[in-house]
Design a protein that fits this description.
This protein has about 160 residues and is of the alpha+beta class. Helices cover about 15% and strands about 45% of the residues. A hairpin with a 6-residue loop joins strand 2 (about 55-60) and strand 3 (about 70-80).
Length: about 160
């Protein structure tokens, strides 16, 4: 009987400790704001090649301190035009800034580069400010087959 009482007391104390730890160590409450990103996709020289333009939105810098890291993915979208507009929910609780990576499916295979086909031009535009409302980001496609992390953070 005495063992059972001690066992129950230990279980109750552990449960209270886990509840307190869960409440104190929880993640921040998710908070979002509606943002519309507008822009134009350009090439360094000449027109943008024909093909679907694929975009991926990122939080530019996520978390803080030693855990801070660049380019936390938000969502993808596509456009058949070099002028784009897209509305999305920006996760304010995840970090700061906005980056938009774009690539053109120049060879029409609907795949971003393969070992044998490296023709898809890509580029990235970013803003260090946390977005709100409408944001204008023009993207210049400068390199073939480069992911967002190739462009950001920029080399020292």
């Amino acid at each position: 009987m005495r063992f059972l009482k001690r066992f129950l007391i230990v279980i109750v104390v552990l449960a209270i400790c886990f509840i307190l730890l869960d409440r104190c160590a929880g993640l921040p409450n998710p908070e979002y704001t509606t943002v519309t990103v507008n822009g134009d996709v350009k090439m360094i020289a000449g027109p943008v090649p024909a093909g679907t333009i694929h975009f991926r939105l990122y939080v530019l810098e996520s978390l803080e301190g030693v855990l801070q890291h660049p380019l936390e993915e938000i969502e993808d979208f596509e456009s058949d035009s070099a002028t784009f507009s897209h509305t999305f929910e920006y996760p304010l609780h995840m970090g700061t800034g906005l980056a938009v990576h774009a690539w053109v499916d120049a060879d029409g295979d609907n795949i971003f580069c393969t070992p044998s086909a490296r023709l898809d031009p890509s580029g990235l535009a970013s803003d260090t400010e946390t977005p709100s409302g409408e944001v204008q980001l023009d993207i210049t496609l400068t390199e073939n087959c480069r992911a967002a992390n190739w462009f950001y953070p920029p080399a020292p």
